[in-house]
């Protein structure tokens, strides 16, 4: 069993876990803020997408694999390995001399991040009894919201006042402290469940994720959707994913055990997490675009734009987690799913005349509806599993949620761009460039004050109106996953966090011996 023996040193372990989770979850947001400066220094404007894609691909591919390995051989060694890889990748990123080098080094970072995120929550459940998990899970869930606030702010400050290299070096002191705390104070049992390594499943899963991620990232940007490159990537994904499914059915100890999905609470938690990821990412991306492009907010303060939403996330993550022992998973998530649906609906009503204050109110509602999903779903997903299955269960949930966000970015990006482009053609009769520089169907061309100042006011007003309508239309389509969130929440069981753990051992045994 993996239950830790520490009592007095739990505070140090929690501090180490929080620092590690903060680094991993903040990494993409802090880099995105500095990307303009990085490109200006290194060049490679046509390749900058690889800097983000490399990290996301490596992180997603690593999540289920590291989760499984932590079940087999222990959490501590793979957590420390992931932390070391993340710091090593950070050092390399800070020394990058080209955009190609930076992309490769970001992939190394991503591999480390793929271990940190899922194992952090699994260790949390190992070291705390059920009655304390709600409070702690809420605290850890709130880190995701805080990272979205402080990442852009910290990235902008470091880039403007020091150097973009230090957005990577800043990970080193935090990582060293976390490494010391975990290595010195986290004591786990040396008794582990011996299993065979499913190499075929691991390789085919990584290959399938790589093909899918690059197809989604490059399609419609670097290459047309019907180009040979994108079609081949989708074909590669299909072949590798089918091979993965076949391999997992035959493997004695699969990377992702499909027997876990026989558990109703786990299966429904995972589906709800997927749908939340799809809908929430739409708000995270298009609310800043709306505020900057429609209401004229400054991009300099981009890190503050989502502050109301993220404060709502922090509050509901804590509230939901601390209520799990009293009200049960389904009852809690029903309340927050309804709030989330109301928030998405309100966003679908925005227009060019919607005030900043009104948008702020909508953002708070979205945040309140979302935060509980980061904490409650993490608890419900592993509720019926013992320590020998927690790593796999938690990492699969993280993997599926991240996949939902990636798919959401792509699908709703296509919807918004197409609608915006069509509305511009309707308004201006298919005229060419309506404003200097950039693609007229790209809303980001409106985000700079310089670009807006060069557009005649009558034309700018029409463009802003079309942009607002395209974004509200996109939010209307986001109602589909939001409604499905509410539907699948009904499939959750109403177990409570403090329930007897006897059943978990029985489910775990059944998962290990499905025959």
Concise description?
Helices cover 76% and strands 0% of the residues. With 515 residues, it is mainly alpha-helical.
Highest CATH level, the class of the largest domain: Mainly Alpha
User: CATH homologous superfamily name of the largest domain?
Assistant: MFS general substrate transporter like domains
CATH structural fold name of the largest domain: Growth Hormone, Chain: A
Helix/strand-derived category reads mainly alpha
First and last CA, distance: 23 Å
Mean pLDDT: 79
Strand content: under 5%
Which regions have little confidence, pLDDT < 50, spanning 5+ residues?
Answer: 1-6, 499-515
Q: Sketch the topology as an H/E string, one letter per element.
A: HHHHHHHHHHHHHHHHHHH
- Based on Cα principal axes, name the global outline: globular
How would a crystallographer describe the biggest sheet? none
Give the count of structural domains.
Answer: 3
Topology, element by element:
Blueprint: H1 10-42, H2 49-73, H3 75-94, H4 99-127, H5 130-161, H6 166-169, H7 171-185, H8 199-218, H9 228-250, H10 264-293, H11 302-305, H12 307-327, H13 329-347, H14 356-381, H15 387-428, H16 449-453, H17 457-477, H18 479-489, H19 502-512
Helix pairs in contact: 1-4, 1-5, 1-7, 2-3, 2-4, 2-8, 2-15, 3-4, 3-7, 4-15, 5-12, 5-14, 8-9, 10-14, 10-15, 10-17, 10-18, 12-13, 12-14, 13-14, 13-18, 15-17
């Amino acid at each position: 069993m993996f239950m830790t023996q520490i009592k007095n040193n739990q505070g140090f372990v929690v501090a180490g876990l929080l620092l590690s989770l903060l680094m991993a979850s903040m990494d993409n947001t802090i880099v995105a803020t500095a990307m303009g400066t990085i490109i200006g220094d290194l060049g490679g404007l046509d390749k900058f997408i690889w800097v983000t894609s490399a990290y996301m691909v490596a992180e997603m591919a690593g999540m289920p694999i590291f989760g499984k390995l932590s079940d087999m051989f222990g959490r501590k060694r793979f957590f420390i390995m992931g932390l070391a890889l993340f710091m090593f990748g950070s050092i390399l990123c800070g020394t990058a001399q080209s955009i190609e080098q930076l992309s490769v080094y970001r992939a190394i970072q991503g591999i480390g991040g793929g271990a940190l995120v899922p194992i952090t929550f699994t260790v949390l459940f190992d070291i705390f009894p059920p009655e304390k998990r709600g409070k702690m899970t809420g605290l850890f869930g709130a880190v995701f919201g805080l990272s979205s606030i402080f990442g852009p702010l910290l990235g902008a400050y470091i880039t403007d006042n020091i150097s973009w290299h230090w957005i990577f070096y800043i990970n080193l002191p935090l990582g060293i402290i976390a490494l010391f705390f975990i290595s010195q104070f986290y004591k786990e049992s040396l008794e582990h469940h011996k299993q065979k390594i499913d190499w075929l499943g691991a390789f085919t899963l990584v290959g399938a994720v790589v093909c899918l991620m690059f197809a989604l990232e490059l399609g419609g940007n670097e290459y047309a959707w019907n180009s040979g490159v994108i079609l081949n990537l989708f074909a590669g994904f299909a072949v590798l994913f089918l091979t993965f499914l076949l391999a997992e059915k035959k493997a004695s100890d699969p990377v992702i055990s499909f027997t876990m999905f026989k558990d109703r609470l786990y299966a429904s938690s995972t589906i709800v997490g997927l749908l939340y990821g799809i809908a929430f990412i739409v708000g995270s991306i298009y609310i800043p675009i709306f505020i900057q492009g429609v209401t004229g907010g400054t991009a300099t303060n981009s890190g503050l734009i989502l502050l109301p939403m993220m404060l709502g996330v922090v509050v509901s993550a804590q509230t939901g987690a601390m209520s799990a022992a009293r009200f049960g998973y389904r009852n809690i998530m029903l309340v927050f799913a309804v709030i989330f649906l109301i928030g998405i609906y309100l966003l679908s009503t925005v227009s060019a005349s919607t005030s900043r204050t009104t948008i702020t109110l909508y953002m708070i509602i979205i945040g309140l509806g979302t935060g509980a999903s980061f904490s409650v779903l993490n608890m419900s997903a592993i509720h019926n599993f013992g320590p020998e299955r927690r790593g796999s269960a938690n990492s699969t949930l993280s993997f599926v949620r991240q996949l939902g966000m990636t798919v959401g970015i792509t699908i709703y990006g296509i919807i918004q761009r197409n609608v915006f482009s069509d509305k511009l053609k309707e308004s201006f009769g298919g005229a060419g460039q309506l404003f200097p520089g950039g693609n007229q169907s790209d809303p980001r061309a409106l985000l700079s004050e310089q670009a807006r100042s060069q557009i005649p006011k009558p034309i700018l007003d029409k463009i802003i109106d079309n942009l607002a309508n395209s974004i509200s239309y996109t939010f209307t389509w986001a109602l589909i996953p939001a409604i499905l969130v509410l539907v699948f929440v009904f499939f959750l069981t109403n177990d409570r966090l403090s329930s007897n753990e006897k059943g978990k051992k029985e489910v775990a045994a059944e998962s290990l011996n499905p025959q």
